[in-house]
Amino acid sequence: MNNKPRNITIAAFCALLFLSIGFFISNNTRADKAETEEIVYQKLSALEARNMMNENNNFILLDVRTEEEFAESRIDGAILIPDYEIPSRAEAELDKEALIFIYCQSGKRSSSSARELIDMGFKRVYDIGGIMYWPYGVIN
Question: How many other β-carbons are positioned within 10 Å of the β-carbon of residue 60?
Fold first, then answer.
């Protein structure tokens, strides 16, 4: 008796089974990745930030310096939430889905504030460093 047709049928069945299992695993892995995609800290140069601002009309420019520093100079259009008030004010005053650019005087407070917002669940946060490195003009 010739077993070739039977062997071919079994081989085809096994191949189809393995392909189905691989497809199932692949689709579930992609879905899991999308659901658990981690939001990470991102630092932008002034030029990168300015280009993104020019491409997006709807964003928040967040100054995390003190009220005194803000009164002395700021980037046009910025709002103020001092870094030490981020935990108590951010969720009430900022949209977690908004595009947010953060700056301070030199970059230290903006870095820690950006990380803090990300930890709080804000999704589109960019640290643009210090106003002292912003070459596009400030309001005095």
Answer: 19
The dihedrals phi and psi of 61, each to the nearest 5 degrees, come to: -105, 110
Which phi and psi (to 5°) does residue 83 adopt? -55, -40
Closest C-alpha among 88, 94, 77 to residue 139: 77
| DSSP-derived 3-state class of residue 133 | helix
pLDDT band at 17 (very low <50, low <70, confident <90, very high): very low
Give the predicted TM-score (pTM) of the model: 0.74
The SS3 of residue 64 is coil
At which residue do the structure tokens 């992609």 appear? 30
Per-residue H/E/C for 1-57: CCCHHHHHHHHHHHHHHHHHHHHHHHHHHHHHHHHCCCCCCCECCHHHHHHHHHHCC
Cα–Cα distance list, 32 to 4, 37, 79 (Å)? 42, 8, 36
Q: Is 104 helix (H, G, I), strand (E, B) or coil?
A: strand
> DSSP 3-state assignment of 120?
coil
